[in-house]
Amino acid sequence: MSPEAMRARIDSRACLDFLAQMVRHKSYTQTEGERELAGFMVREIQALGLDASLTPVPGGRVNAIGRWCGAGGGKSLLFNGHLDTNPVTEGWTVDPWAGKIDDAFIYGIGVSNMKAGDAA
User: What's 75's DSSP letter?
Assistant: First the structure.
């Protein structure tokens, strides 16, 4: 499939809506919100038909791990990101937890950090 054909199959609105759902999780570092977002990600990965689970890490935190196993003995590819955010700072002109989408942007805490990469 050509890159153009692949791009044509992307549902941009569905991608933005998914990212907005992620933004609505208040996933500050080492909080229950971070764990809830990890659980959400596991459920979404499973909905795509992949194996997924939460893996405990030190400090009572968890990682969301998804696996799409191939049939051959080729090399593996790893996508890695974080789900936690820093606390909201002053200066927001929109609700940082709303995941607001307009005709040019999506607004929310973590969008320009790693949540957009994780959503992709």
Answer: -
> Is-contact 84 27, C-beta < 8 A?
yes
54-76 per-position pLDDT tens digit: 999 998 899 999 998 888 888 88
Contact in structure between 13 and 30 (CB atoms under 8 Å): no
Per mean pLDDT, which range of 51-60, 76-85, 95-104, 106-115 is the poorest?
76-85
Write out the two tokens for 11: 């549902």
Rounded CA separation 19/110 (Å): 10
Q: Amino acid identity, residue 88?
A: V
Q: Which three-class secondary structure state does DSSP give residue 8?
A: helix
β-pair partners for 54: 64
Cα dihedral 113, 82, 41, 59 sign: negative
